[in-house]
Amino acid sequence: MTNTVAITPYNKKLVRATFWMVEPKADEAAEIFYTKLFEMSPELRPLFKGNMRDQGKRMMEMLSTVVKGLNTLDVLAPLVRSMGRRHVNYGIKTEHYNMAAAALMYSLKEELQENWNEEVESAWLEVYQTVSDIMQSA
Ligand code: HEM
């Protein structure tokens, strides 16, 4: 049903290894992410109604849940789908997912510095795409 098996073991390994480097700086990573997102797409700013620091924490916690569950994403799928349904209510459209992908890649790159490369980027894009697909399949 979902294409979670399509994530290669090597990409899972890269995403796990790099996420652990970013996690201690999760607040900073979230701040870079939202700053970049609103710089690229200011029209998205009004869709966020709450405190952005709290929002950043929720977003990073969800990423952590996904990264920990990479081998069993099917188990997480119902949770991810209900999150996808809530995003429809927030006014999130298909094209917004690509904007967030670009901002996330930027933020990871800033945090990872010399540990960032094209291989790491494509591994993260594969994971992001998979999660976005599940969210949007709801
Ligand atoms: C992998 C993709 C994404 C993940 C893991 C994610 C994660 C989250 C989480 C955990 C929340 C907290 C509330 C909830 O669970 O419903 C949330 C809320 C929200 N997200 Fe996302 N999100 C993703 C994609 C996006 C995209 C693409 C956008 C738009 C650019 C977006 C905009 C929002 C907005 C507007 C809220 C509500 C904030 C508020 O109430 O102030 N999200 N997101």
Automatic annotation (TrEMBL):
The keyword DNA-binding does not apply. It holds the Pfam family Globin. Residues 6-138 form the Globin domain. The keyword Iron applies. One of its GO terms (biological process) is nitric oxide catabolic process. One of its GO terms (molecular function) is nitric oxide dioxygenase NAD(P)H activity. It comes from Reichenbachiella faecimaris. This is Nitric oxide dioxygenase. Keywords: Dioxygenase, Heme, Iron, Metal-binding, Oxidoreductase, Oxygen transport, Transport. Belongs to the globin family.
